[in-house]
Amino acid sequence: MKINHQKEIKLWIILVAILLSVTSAFSQPLWETMKNEKDVLKLSVWFRAQDVDQYLANKDGLNSAISWCKKYGITKVYLEAYGRGLYANRETLLNSKERFLNEGFEVASGATTEYGPDEFDIFHCYTHKRHQEELQRISEYAASLFDEVILDDWYFTNCECADCIHARGDQSWSKYYTDLMLKMSEERVLKPARAVNPNVKMIIKYPQWNDEYHTRGYDVVRESKVFDGIWVGTEGRQFDYEKSEGYEIGYNAYFNMRWLANFGSIGGAWFDTGRARTKIPTYLEQARHTILGEGDEVILWCYGGHLEATPKIEALSEELPGLIKLANLVQGKPIKGVQLLKPGNSDSFEETWVCSFLGELGIPFVPVSDVDEEAMAVVFPVQSLKDPGFIRKFQHVADRGTPILVTDGLAKRMTANPAYLNNVNVKTLPVKGSPKALLNMTREEIKTYRDHLLAPFGMKFDAPARVELYLFGENMFVVENINDEAVDVTLELPKVSTVNKALILPESGSSAEVSLSGKTVKMTISAHTLVAVGVK
Q: Taking a C-beta distance cutoff of 8 angstroms, is the pair 304, 335 a contact?
């Protein structure tokens, strides 16, 4: 019986090896396609430190990981040196790095500065010297092994221990946190990492929760300048009106990409499986919003998580050819539309995530961090008050006859200048302290504000909430319907003779009827569908 059992084990090993080789052979076309298209769109995957030690420590696990990556068109891997209290084994990291490089992959690293799942608040106290020293050790370890390191978005602090309270003094928490984390970045991350490896490129990854950056120590204005690059979180979830945060709605990913580009060079974005909270359509919308935001590299977080989400990665691999087409359509084209102001490190008061919800009203936005006094149309949310010269700039923009939309949260804080709000060019949007309630506006209510803003462009767009409009260059627009049902929409243009349906995503199982009547483009778009339309 023992001999037979051993024979069975050998037979299974042989069968697994054959299956892996067959899978690899049949998946080569997608991998080769992605390698050829890497300057347009690159797909990467993140191996957590735990993934490194669990899956890459032996030959079989490493072989499986390589085959899996090739099957799904992944051409770059990030081998996390540290994460969640674990330093990945140095030998495993080096062996895996060498093997992936030999197989034709690009290889980089990262670090997730979380001490452990049960000590969240303790580790995020950078007032304590021992935590500062641990941060330095993490940075040195990663830089000693790799030339490119991304600092994951657990690199923040929200500690309010007695030592932090004492060190803060009379400063606001935001001021204390941002000054502290800038100092940590310079003294405990960048300086020691570069001392260990002068060639290392250290990148900061910002989370998707942009309205809370400064309240947890992220200073997009100053930190973006000292790091070698920026990465962006573009995770999305099924939006539950009663439970979800605003940063989980689809448009937030696009806004995050475009807004953060005001502060530095964007390397790419990443999203995760979302587990049960992200169904396949929303999972794919994460990728579309990332590419609409001109992201040319997407990191899948993470390898272990995606092994348990085969239907999602299968759907993504099926959509990759279409995503490449989308990237080719939008990359390098300037975005046009209404400027949406959000200065860096600005307080959102009662209007947290308002920018993300505004994008779901079908208004084509250009996210900006500074007031452009020559803008064709502008939306000023309450965050605008961060600009010390805002009132003067507001008056100048209004006096030029520029259509302006202000949120009521901003309006009530401009009581010292009521005449500005009475300008015929200014309308006030009733957010009423509940930004997500904008999703409940009727299409007629939305149209009133949208028509006001689009008038200088000679455009009118008619659509319900959760239908997004993007303008690229002079001759293309994109409409994405993130509703669970089909919608009928129209876009009136100042001049048009023909329209061309350039792309539909997903390319199978969806529909988008596009027709032209005079100057009006009529569209019927299925649920969770994107359509790109060329115009002449």
A: no
Q: Is pLDDT of 59 > 80?
A: yes
User: Which residue from 187, 78, 176 is spatially nearest to 127, judged by alpha carbons?
Assistant: 176
Query: Per residue in 170-192, pLDDT tens?
Result: 999 999 999 999 999 999 999 99
**In sequence order, what are the residues at sequence separation of 6 or more whose Cβ sits closer than 8 angstroms to the Cβ of residue 359?**
251, 252, 254, 255, 340, 365, 468
Topology given in CATH for the domain delimited by 2-330: TIM Barrel (3.20.20)
Instruction: Report which residue type is found at 142.
Output: A
Asked, colleague to colleague, whether 333-458 and 474-536 share their fold, the answer is: no
Question: Over the stretch 107-128, which tens digit does the pLDDT of each residue have?
Answer: 999 999 987 654 544 557 999 9
| Residue 402 to residue 126: CA distance in whole angstroms | 46
pLDDT for 5 beyond 50: no
With H, G, I as helix, E, B as strand and everything else as coil, classify residue 425.
coil
Tokens of 188: 């405990």
Beta-sheet strand order (sheet of 512-517): 460-462, 487-492, 520-525, 512-517
- Per DSSP, 185 falls in state I
Residue-wise burial string across 267-294, b where 16 or more C-beta atoms lie within 10 A, e elsewhere: bbbbbbbbeebbbebbbbbbbbbbbbbb
Q: Of 258, 453, 244, 433, whose CA–CA distance to 352 is shortest? A: 433
Would you place residue 348 in the very low, low, confident or very high pLDDT band (cuts 50, 70, 90)? very high
* Cα separations in angstroms, 295 against 80, 323, 529: 22, 11, 19
Q: What DSSP assignment string belongs to 187-234?
A: IIIIHHHHHH-TT-EEEEEE-S-GGGTGGGT--TTTHHHHSS-EEEE-
Strands 335-336 and 476-481, how do they pair? unpaired
H helix or E strand, kind and range, residue 266: strand 266-272
Instruction: Give the residue-averaged pLDDT of 263-288.
Output: 97
How is residue 348 written in tokens?
């959102």
Fill in the DSSP letter of residue 186: I
How much helix, strand and coil, in percent to the nearest 5, is found in the chain?
45, 20, 35
For the chain, helix (H) and strand (E) counts, in that order, are: 19, 23
Is the C-alpha dihedral spanning 181, 260, 212, 282 positive or negative?
negative
- Residue 477 CA to residue 25 CA, distance in Å, equals 39
Cα of 228 vs its chain's centroid, Å = 18
Q: Which residues contact 521 (CB under 8 A, 6 or more apart)?
A: 490, 491, 492, 493, 496, 499, 514, 515, 533, 535
Domain ranges of the chain: 2-330, 333-458, 474-536
Average pLDDT estimate for 272-282:
97
Which pTM was predicted?
A: 0.93
Half-sphere exposure of 446 (CA within 13 A, CB side): 23
Architecture (CATH level 2) of domain 333-458: 3-Layer(aba) Sandwich (3.40)
Centroid of chain to Cα 351 = 20
Strand order in the sheet with 338-341: 365-368, 338-341, 378-380, 404-407, 426-429
Q: Which fold has domain 474-536?
A: Immunoglobulin-like (2.60.40)
pLDDT of residue 123: 54
> Cα(398)–Cα(384) distance, rounded to whole angstroms?
15
